[in-house]
Amino acid sequence: MTEAILLVGGKGTRLRPLTVHTPKPMVPAAGVPFLTHQLARARAAGVEHIVLATSYLAEVFEPRFGDGSALGLHIEYVTETEPLGTGGAIRNVASHLRSGPDEPVLIFNGDILTGLDIRALVDTHRTSGADVSLHLTRVEDPRAYGLVPTDATGRVTAFLEKPQTPEEILTDQINAGAYVFRRSVIDTIPEGRPVSVERETFPDLLSHGAHLQGMVDSTYWLDLGTPQAFVRGSADLVLGRAPSPAVPGRRGESLVLPTASVAPDAKLTGGTVVGENARVGEGARISGSAILAGAVVEPGAVITDSLVGAGARVGARAALSGAVIGDGARIGADNELRDGVRVWCGAELPPGAVRFSSDQ
């Protein structure tokens, strides 16, 4: 196993305002761009050559990762001029692959945090003789996902759209966003047009008798598609619940990057990360949150399960719970924001503008 494709071209619309200035895979999680964790895990599994399929804000990737040598990788970049979907993006980078027709190529979605045993997925692919192998995971409530039932040998039998009734829930197995393709199969994907690998490529392969193998791996798995999930994923990396060799420090209740400043009596818990050149003032209490580079948390602020964007400022005694503050925003003193509130990049909220009474 020597090469992989990472699909990092999505606009990350559900993650806004985090993705207004930053593509989704480059938003910091546990102190480094999320993509760093994926690259490091791939390298640890033996991958040497990676092609990044980019599109939205494509220009930010190469300045950060270069040729990949700092991570022990060789990285190439291929940019879509128009969005091509997951299948179209895979086909678009095919000419940059080095594998022979029957060799395996790993493919990862750029927004999944997982403890997947990558070597085991490749081993399953090889021993089963599959054309495509899929990482499947089990979820308690599969109604928001497409279902992937398998037979007793793990062979995929169908791809089912999101179930609408209990009778339609035939399995709790879902597509977890990591695949191994036989190299020659990639060349069968139509070229130059949008293609969904989930809705078109996989069902078409199955209908034509191809062997699609599922491997259920129910270790840590999280789709980072929403701000709340992204914050949780960052905290889980800091706490050690989600594995990554790229966390820049020891696992624990908090991670403070070397250039950050935290007052001695501030309390950081729950996997909180304080990014480069960020400052946390006296008496602040921060739990399960991400304070990005250059942000300022003023004295007495209380922040829970929230993300404070790069260069943003949270005023004294402000209270955030489940909130997302965009880059450069200003939250005045004594505001209270909670329950999924998002403040746009550069916005300013005057002191005491938003408060909740104790009986609400």
TrEMBL record:
Keywords assigned: Transferase
> What Gene3D superfamilies does the record point to?
Hexapeptide repeat proteins (2.160.10.10), Spore Coat Polysaccharide Biosynthesis Protein SpsA, Chain A (3.90.550.10)
Gene Ontology MF terms in the entry? transferase activity
**Annotated ranges, domain Mannose-1-phosphate guanyltransferase C-terminal:** 252-332
User: Where does the record locate the signal sequence feature?
Assistant: none
Record InterPro entries: GMPPB_C, Mannose-1P_guanyltransferase, NTP_transferase_dom, Nucleotide-diphossugar_trans
Any one Pfam family here would be GMPPB_C
Please give the PANTHER family that the UniProt record associates with this protein.
SUGAR-1-PHOSPHATE GUANYL TRANSFERASE
Tell me where in this chain the Nucleotidyl transferase domain is found. Answer: 4-236
Q: Per the record's keyword annotation, is Transferase included, yes or no? A: yes
**Which top-rank group of organisms is this from?**
Bacteria
Name of the featured protein: NTP transferase domain-containing protein
Q: Please give the organism.
A: Streptomyces anatolicus
Q: Which family does it belong to?
A: Belongs to the transferase hexapeptide repeat family.
